[in-house]
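Bug report (template v2)

What were you trying to do?
Predict the complex of my protein with flavin-adenine dinucleotide.

What happened?
Run completed; filing so the output is reviewed.

Input:
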Amino acid sequence: MSDTQSFDILVVGGGMTGSALALGLSQQGWKTALVESASAASIMEDIAPANTVHDFEPRVSAISVASQTLLESLGVWAHVDRHRHCPYQAMTVWDADGTGRIHFEAAELQVRALGTIVENRHLVQALFLGLAQSDAEIFDNTRVTGWWEQGVQRGIRLEDGRKISATLVVAADGGTSRLRQWVGLPTREWDYDQQAIVCTVETSQAHQFTAWQRFSTTGPLAFLPLQSESGSHHFCSIVWSQDTAAARRLMALDDGEFISALEKAIEQQLGDIHAVSKRFAFPLRQRHAKDYVRPGVALVGDAAHTIHPLAGQGANLGYSDVAVLLEELARSRRLGLRPDDQQVLARYQRRRKGDNLAMMVTMEGFKQLFARDELPLRWLRNTGMRWLDRISPLKNRLAAEAMGLNRKG
Ligand SMILES: Cc1cc2nc3c(=O)[nH]c(=O)nc-3n(C[C@H](O)[C@H](O)[C@H](O)COP(=O)(O)OP(=O)(O)OC[C@H]3O[C@@H](n4cnc5c(N)ncnc54)[C@H](O)[C@@H]3O)c2cc1C
């Protein structure tokens, strides 16, 4: 196996989760490799200022305080902070079919912001710039096309035939992870029969640094505030989850018709919509791996779990996985254990699986509660929201959960 490069830990997939994990592992002193199909040079290219709706990346994440803390500890937050991102001070959630409304304020929770909206590419760029300064070996612009195991040796094959072996291989290759399938870690999954339409819009009124979310029986619509680099313009990122047939109809509309539908759906909360970018539709599927680990392998991020974007928690759960796996592997390094030590991996799974499952069940409950039109459920929603809005301790606990502050990790 002389043509095989060997590492302590190999991370497959350099998205928001995998690149953070690889950076942290390299900083701990593990001999680390990362494989990513995109080119590192293109990821690290300067991102132009955003003056129109077309300049923003349509995929954004509402980064929680807990995720920010992880990125600070990796030394990459300063880069994110120097570029455009939009800390939001408030969040308003309301029911399209009634009078229920909840409003969260950062000030009430005695925090500076509830979170911040960051374009995904800014996060990955910050992490790749960190990786470029680290000892991690990056195999970019190439795909993993296979998995092999020989006794206690294990690793992957790249599309050009090269082989990489590692004591621990981590799958961070996203929701449709091929690696998860190759290593035989099955999932429980079901289709939401919904698609999330994402795009950027320019509105006539300022977003007031507020995340706006309206629930209706056909799915939630979020207007997430974006940082404007051109003074008087107001931009928001849209995540509009709709039943598949309705999403297809919305995607087929021309821009003018889509803007009218969107203005109606958001009840003109931010005035008129002046412009809309290209739209993208993501089919929504819930997935949860039955196990996150097996000998020599661990799953993190969307490879382990994908959830409905209605509370914008997918990336945050992935960062919690990364924080816990880094903690466990730092501990095993201090104790002189191998990175694939079964107890270490079992502890990682124990600490993360329940937390992720709880979030998935909560999201499913929300989705079901708002998907139904029966009068008693509508009454429950509206009364419940109004009641919750008045009970500060409970409301604050809910907000702290969304910010990742209650996560046991
Ligand atoms: C519409 C929508 C809105 C969302 N909004 C939010 C939000 O507001 N907040 C939030 O926290 N989350 C949000 N999420 C979820 C979030 O985007 C995901 O949880 C997150 O992107 C997962 O990151 P990841 O790194 O685990 O996987 P991915 O982002 O899927 O990254 C996987 C990486 O692996 C690479 N890869 C895959 N296969 C291979 C291979 N064979 N060889 C080499 N490389 C490979 C890919 O190129 C990619 O870079 C949203 C999701 C959707 C669909």
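What did the reviewer find?
Residues 108 and 392 are 9 Å apart (CA to CA). Residues 13-18, 35-38, 61-62, 143-144, 172-174, 178, 196, 198, 239, 282, 301-302, 309, 312-316, 318 surround flavin-adenine dinucleotide (CB under 6 Å).
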